[in-house]
Amino acid sequence: MPVICAAAVLLPWVWGVWAMPPWMGAAAFLLSIASIAFISRLFARGQPAPAASIPESVPQAPEPERVDFDVTDTSPPPAVVVSAGNLAALQSLVAQWLDASRQTDDGISSASRELREVNQQSEAAAVNIGNSFRSIMDKTGRQMESAVRLLKSDTPADGGGSSWLSLPDFIKAYEHQLDEVTKRMMDFSQASQEMSKHQEVVRQHSVSIDEMLDELRAMAARIRKLALDSTVAYSEQGNTDSRWFIEIADRIRETSNTAHELTRRIRDGLENIRAVMGNTYEELDKSSGRVRLAAVQAKVDVSQLNITTLEKAREVTRTLEGVNSLGEEIRREINSIIVGMQYQDITQQRLEYIRKPVLENAGASIAGAYERTRREVLNNPELMPVDVVQRLVETRNKDKDGAAPVQAARGATQSVDIELF
Amino acid sequence: MANILIIDDSMTMRQMVNFTISAAGHKVTEAANADEALQSAQSQRFDLVISDVNMPGRSGIELVAELRKLPEYKFTPILLLTTESQPEMKNKGRAAGATGWIVKPFDPDALLNVLRKVLPAN
Hints:
The complex is a heterodimer of chains A (421) and B (122). Chain A has helices at 2-17, 22-43, 84-151, 167-237, 242-341, 343-379, 386-414. With 421 residues, chain A is mainly alpha-helical. The longest helix of chain A has 100 residues, at 242-341.
């Protein structure tokens, strides 16, 4: 009866164990062994305790008998004879599987904890890297905005109350003022040149007047000569010859007309000079007025521009300080990214720690227990039904061939295809 | 500007250390393992060596011991940059001749501070 129950428990395990992973096969085997022990205890109730010593030879297990169970039958089960040696061997195997499963359980728990921690750290690192990148982009954008605002708009970059000229407009305003002053200076220069021309005209007039004055001097000399001649002639001749007086009078009249003409020309010349000087003075006056006005206006505008320049310089200083401060924050974010990127290596090392001591050892422990069990069964075939033992023998031979295809498949999955469209 | 050798089997780590140290104006040479590092150390003179501990082949601690055998590296600062933080590992590193021990992940500013302390003033 116990043999039948044992077979009923073990056969499914043996049938399916070769298709499942070793750890699952081990767990199933443990369950089978526990079931067998429980059933054996049930059937061995009331029987004397088996001897502790293990006999030298273990008898062949009898063929299982077919037993029909009646579920309504409440009579005690028939007694089952279990050899002490087989039970001890089974107990030893169960103990080994219990150890192996405990080690596996411990290893898997430890590995789970490590993996959980590694996952959390990696996730945190990735999130930090993402946040840092977003922050860097935001701060870089703000730097650019500050710099562009300095050049573009007329609202202060630092958000102050009054508005100032932007840098290009500022430069244009300075240029405009300089243009105005330059234009006025050019006008003044032209007026000075006109004055030079007028001076030339005046000089020519002066030369004419000098000539005329020379002629007047000559005439005065002639008149003196005439007066002297007439006095001499009168005193020499002592008569009243009218022809001589008429001649003298004609000469005096001619000289008088000439003098009159000369004075008229002198007067005209002086009038011209006065007119020219008047025009020149007027032009100079106008030009200097314009220059003065332009200079005053430029002074006022430049003062205003200077105030604006100073304020603009302060604004630029504040903006550059802000840009610098953002740059420092960006540097700190980059440091944070560098720290986050190192978690790739840290994660790799910790996973390696989990793989080697935990998973490999756990696997080795199960594999060792499995091998020992198989060896025990092969050495003690009476522990198992005949077909189970037969399968174990077949599997032992297949193991050597079975490893190669798995390795080949593993190698095949490592290659990566890249296709560009 | 110092000539610095960095050794780590992880390309990411070498990249991060290189980025940090280069930004400070130093010249950096990389090696992926202890053998490459020894070849580089013998072909040119380095002012500072920074090495990982856990590497395939020879470990960083073994590399330190090998470098200390070379006359030109008897007094060169050698820093170990590693995930290990147990006192016994640190003692092994110190016994092998390491100048300092930095636990990953390192802060770039902290690493540069250490460099300023261990590198000669010139």
